[in-house]
Backbone:
C-alpha cells in the first residue's frame, strides 16, 4: 500500500514539474515576442549563462541599427518563479561602450553573449 502512495506522489510531482515548466516557457516566449513587437527596427540578441548550482542568467537586448541599446531585460534565478526585469544601466549605450564593471558583473557573461549575437547579426 505504501509503495502505491509513493508512486502516486512521484507521478503528481512529475506532472506539476511539467506544468510549471510549460508555464515558464510560455512566459519566456511571451516576453521575447513583446520585446520584438515593441522594437520593430534594430537588432535583437539573447545571452544565457547555464550552471547547475549557480543562478542562471538570461539577457534580452534590443539595439538600434547603429548599435545603441534601446532595451535590455534580465532574468536571474534557478526556479520557475524568476521573472524578467529591466536592466536600465545599459540603455542608451553603444554595445561597444558598455563599462567593464557591468561586463564583469553578475550578468557579464550573458551580456557578452547577447552583444556577440547582435554583432554577428549586424555583419
Residues:
Amino acid at each position: 500500500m505504501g509503495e502505491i502512495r509513493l508512486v502516486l506522489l512521484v507521478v503528481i510531482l512529475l506532472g506539476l514539474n511539467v506544468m510549471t515548466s510549460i508555464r515558464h516557457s510560455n512566459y519566456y516566449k511571451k516576453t521575447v515576442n513583446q520585446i520584438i513587437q515593441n522594437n520593430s527596427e534594430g537588432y535583437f540578441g539573447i545571452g544565457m549563462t547555464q550552471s547547475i548550482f549557480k543562478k542562471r542568467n538570461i539577457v534580452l537586448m534590443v539595439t538600434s541599427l547603429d548599435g545603441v541599446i534601446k532595451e535590455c531585460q534580465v532574468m536571474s534565478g534557478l526556479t520557475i518563479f524568476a521573472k524578467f526585469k529591466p536592466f536600465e544601466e545599459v540603455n542608451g549605450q553603444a554595445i561597444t561602450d558598455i563599462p567593464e564593471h557591468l561586463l564583469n558583473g553578475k550578468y557579464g557573461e550573458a551580456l557578452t553573449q547577447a552583444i556577440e549575437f547582435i554583432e554577428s547579426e549586424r555583419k
